[in-house]
Design brief:
Distance between the termini: 35 Å
Number of domains: 1
CATH topology: Metallo-beta-lactamase, Chain A
Shape: globular
Order of helices and strands: EEEHEHHEHEEEEEHEHHEHEE
Number of strands: 14
Helix content: 10-25%
CATH architecture: 4-Layer Sandwich
Structural class: alpha/beta
Radius of gyration: 17 Å
CATH superfamily: Ribonuclease Z/Hydroxyacylglutathione hydrolase-like
Length: about 250
C-alpha cells in the first residue's frame, strides 16, 4: 500500500461553506486543503465560492478538485474563468476533474457560444484542465479519487489523502469504500441530509452503516440550516461550519 510521507504537513481543511443546495442561508459546501497554513487545493467551486476564497486568502485558487457536476458545486467555475483570463499560463488554476465527468462538465460550462461579448475566448483558455482517474499528484502529494453513491453510477467522486482525510462529497453511505480509503486514522468529512434520499446520506444511515471507529472520526457538512446542524450535534457528531478551520493534527483555529 502506498504511504504518504510523514512530512506532508497537510494540516487542515478550511470550510468556505457547508450548506446544501436546499439552503437559503448557508454558502455552498466547499473546503480548502491547507498545507503549512497555506491554501493548497480547493474542493468544489459553487456559486460565490471563488469570491469567498479570494476574500479569505487574497488570491485565486491555484488548484481545484471537482467532486461532481451539480451547480452548487461547479457554478463558481464561470466566475473563476473570468477572473483568471488575465493571469499567465503558470498562474492559471489547475482544475482536477474525474475523467468520466469531463465531457459533461464541458457541455455544462464550456460549450456556451461567445463566453465573451467580443468573442475570441475558449473556456479552457483560462482554466488548465487535468483529467484524473484513481489518483493525482499535487506538489509531492498523492491524492486518491474514488466513486461514491450519488444518484447514478460514476456521477460523483470522493477525495482522500492517506493518513490525513477523506472528503466524501455528496453521497449515500459508502462503508465499503471507507474501509479501504479511511483505514489509517483519516478524518472523514461526510455528507449528511436531514432525510435519506437517493443522493444523500441521512443521520440514521450513518448510525446504521458505519462502525464506531469511523463515526468517531466523522465531521458532517452539506446541511440546509443551523437547526439541522444542531440536531446532528445533539446526536453526538462534529459539524463543519462555513469559515471554520478544522485541523487534521489537533490544531483547529479560525
Amino acid at each position: 500500500m502506498f504511504k504518504q510521507s510523514a512530512m506532508s504537513n497537510v494540516d487542515a481543511l478550511r470550510f468556505l461553506g457547508a450548506g446544501s443546495a436546499a439552503s437559503d442561508c448557508l454558502s455552498p459546501s466547499a473546503a480548502v486543503v491547507e498545507r503549512g497554513g497555506q491554501p493548497l487545493l480547493l474542493i468544489d467551486c459553487g456559486p460565490g465560492v471563488a469570491n469567498v476564497y479570494r476574500a479569505t486568502y487574497g488570491e485565486l485558487p491555484k488548484a481545484v478538485y471537482i467532486t461532481h457536476l451539480h451547480m452548487d458545486h461547479v457554478a463558481g467555475l464561470e466566475t473563476l474563468f473570468y477572473a483568471s483570463r488575465t493571469l499567465s499560463a503558470e498562474q492559471q488554476p489547475r482544475l482536477y476533474v474525474p475523467v468520466t465527468l469531463v465531457t459533461a462538465l464541458h457541455a455544462r460550462l464550456a460549450e456556451f457560444p461567445n463566453l465573451l461579448a467580443e468573442g475570441g475566448a475558449n473556456f479552457w483558455d483560462a482554466l488548465r484542465l487535468i483529467p484524473v482517474s484513481d489518483n493525482f499528484w499535487l506538489q509531492d502529494l498523492r491524492f486518491e479519487v474514488f466513486p461514491v453513491r450519488h444518484h447514478a453510477p460514476y456521477a460523483a467522486y470522493a477525495l482522500g489523502l492517506r493518513g490525513r482525510f477523506v472528503y466524501t462529497g455528496d453521497t449515500r453511505p459508502i462503508p465499503e469504500m471507507l474501509t479501504r480509503y479511511a483505514s489509517a486514522g483519516e478524518t472523514v468529512f461526510h455528507d449528511c441530509a436531514p432525510q435519506p434520499n437517493p443522493s444523500h446520506t441521512g443521520l440514521e444511515d450513518l448510525q446504521r452503516e458505519y462502525s464506531p471507529s469511523i463515526l468517531n472520526r466523522m465531521v458532517l457538512y452539506h446541511y440546509p440550516d443551523e437547526i439541522t446542524a444542531k440536531r446532528y450535534e445533539d446526536a453526538g457528531f462534529r459539524i463543519a461550519r462555513g469559515g471554520e478551520r478544522i485541523g487534521l493534527d489537533g490544531s483547529d483555529g479560525v
